[in-house]
Design goal:
The structure is a single chain. The model has no long low-confidence stretch (mean pLDDT about 95). The two termini are about 30 Å apart. The chain has seven helices and 13 strands. Helix content is about 35%, strand content about 20%. The protein has helices spanning about 15-30, 80-90, 90-100, 110-115, 135-140, 160-175, 175-185, and strands at about 5-10, 35-40, 50, 55, 60, 70, 105-110, 125, 140-145, 150, 155, 195, 200-205. It is α/β, with parallel strands linked by helices. It has a single domain, classed as Rossmann fold, CATH 3.40.50.
């Protein structure tokens, strides 16, 4: 089986758990023998990224053309983080390019606003953190009140800890429920809420 390449894109002001929760899910899946590799990347080369609560991380490299790209949230309501990269425009542009070239795009929390400004959510079901729901709706997305929304090549998750459930769902979708259950058990995580699958317009617990 071909290895799945996953990248989680970081930027100053991102929310720590939005990125590290999914990273740990994917890393644990890889440790369990699943054919995937996960990296923490940035839009452009930098030695260090500072997250919203002060955690400093050294990225593994710069954004490439992964099979799956995860965009964390953080800072939408306070003017930093996501708000700053949306106003800058370079990250939404990079996300749009990745998607156009075949990358599946997933967001956690207010990272959904990066996807909205990349033009990926208009007319599509999506969710985000409650502080950004009105803005998401204004982007012409169809706001769904679920923890994880799966629209095939674009997935979104609600606030913060929902990123763990998003990553577990992606592991289940791509590699099977047994792998996802093994990872959830390893992390002592009880999966919460349901997944809205747009392809068949239903929620799955």
């Amino acid at each position: 089986m071909t290895e799945t390449d996953i990248e989680i894109v970081l930027f100053d002001g991102f929310d720590e758990l939005d990125a590290i929760g999914p990273y740990e899910v994917f890393a644990n899946a890889a440790d369990a023998g699943t054919p995937l590799a996960v990296r923490l990347v940035t839009r452009s080369e930098t030695d260090m990224v500072t997250a919203s609560h002060g955690l400093r991380l050294e990225p593994d490299g710069t954004l490439g053309q992964p099979d799956l790209l995860v965009v964390p949230g953080g800072g939408w309501a306070t003017g930093g983080g996501v708000r700053a990269v949306v106003e800058d425009g370079s990250l939404p542009d990079a996300v749009e390019t990745c998607h156009a070239e075949g990358t599946t795009i997933a967001s956690v929390c207010t990272g959904g606003m990066v996807l909205a400004h990349a033009g990926l959510l208009a007319g599509r079901p999506a969710t985000t953190h409650h502080v950004a729901v009105d803005d998401l709706e204004a982007s012409a997305a169809e706001v769904i009140d679920e923890r994880v929304v799966d629209d095939g090549d674009v997935l979104t998750a609600g606030g913060v800890t929902s990123g763990i459930d998003l990553a577990l769902w992606l592991v289940e979708r791509e590699f099977g429920a047994d792998v996802a259950d093994t990872v959830a058990t390893e992390m002592a995580h009880e999966r919460r809420g349901s997944v809205f699958e747009a392809n068949d317009q239903r929620s799955r617990s």
